Fold Helicase HerA-like C-terminal domain-containing protein.
Amino acid sequence: MILIDATGEFHTLGTQAAHIALGADTDEPDGTKLVGLSHHMMRESDRNAFLNPSSGTQLPKLREAIRSLRLARALQEDNGAEADHASLVAADGTISKAGVRIARFGSACRKYVEVMEDPHAPFDLKVLSKQIQWECVWPTDRNAPDQFGTMDFTQIGYVSTLVSRMNDLIQTPEVMGVIDPQPGTLDALEEIKTWIDAPNGHLLRISLRNLTFANHLREIVVNILGQALIGWARSGVFRAIPVVVAIDEAHQFFDVTVGDEFANTRLNAFDSIAKEGRKYGLTVCLATQRPGDLPAGVLSQVGMTVVHRLADGRDRQRVEQAAAELDHSATRLLPGLVPGEAILMGVDFPVPVSVHVSRPLAPPASEGPRYENWGTSE
């Protein structure tokens, strides 16, 4: 089982689980591995949700800038690169197109097209804002049609807000530490894959406790993890040994839409897992206090439901809609359940079953504030 711990309250599992943490390993159990998730593992939709470019000028320029930086990286790493191509790259790792012969740049693009079109090819995020501006040139020079033109300052004005966001982003250490980790930082996806391949792996806890909420980073990181898991599942990795992914505070990560009415992105990796993962050996387990915030299409796929106390009418209605065997009399019991009591519903239960859940050996650190300590000193 893989546990995505949104709040860090399951750190009490201690040695019963393997632990990896994003953002920082503060207040995590001994042996926790600090991991990152490099930005080049983002799909374009994830990156758009992260940077929020407008669909007019900013998005095409962002795409071109990323392709140029992938080309620059490939040229820098190729010791046998042609001198005419290698000289395109400046000392800071960017490519300025202004005044460059179009055929010269096109020749380099054709040679390294596989790298440029690889959606996960690495590039230097720190110079992306500068490269976006270098893309703002006239298509041709009025005096030399075989060359790119000079800088187009109108286009630079159009991308200025995106450039400002990028410059602010690279100065935010809690974000860059995750998506552009320091050398030597472990890769989250590699650690998950290693754990899956280990014969004695039983429980892997992924802690988001110290992961910032800025730039929708939490939702995007979880979406990337979900995309990786469903990709492995479709390739048959989990057919022999199925995997269950448990998500705490699940309402934060399902059917998330990032952006505005003009340009938005849906982060729906775990929606796909809920709908089609089981046939590939990948099952999702949801835990939430707000079932009313979960999409109806996801709840309709649930095979078994464990319902604790629900006081909100909208939440009770959503559970009642998802569980056909839950009648009105059982619904009226939900507001009166006490901690430890639950109702089980699902395909294996002809009628809802009331149960009392035993206290776990390692209960999560989910207790509320201790107001009884007011006025006391330790």
User: Anything to note?
Assistant: DSSP finds 15 helices and twelve strands in the chain. Residues 2-37+181-302 form one domain. The two ends are 40 Å apart (CA to CA). The chain has two domains: 2-37+181-302, 44-174.
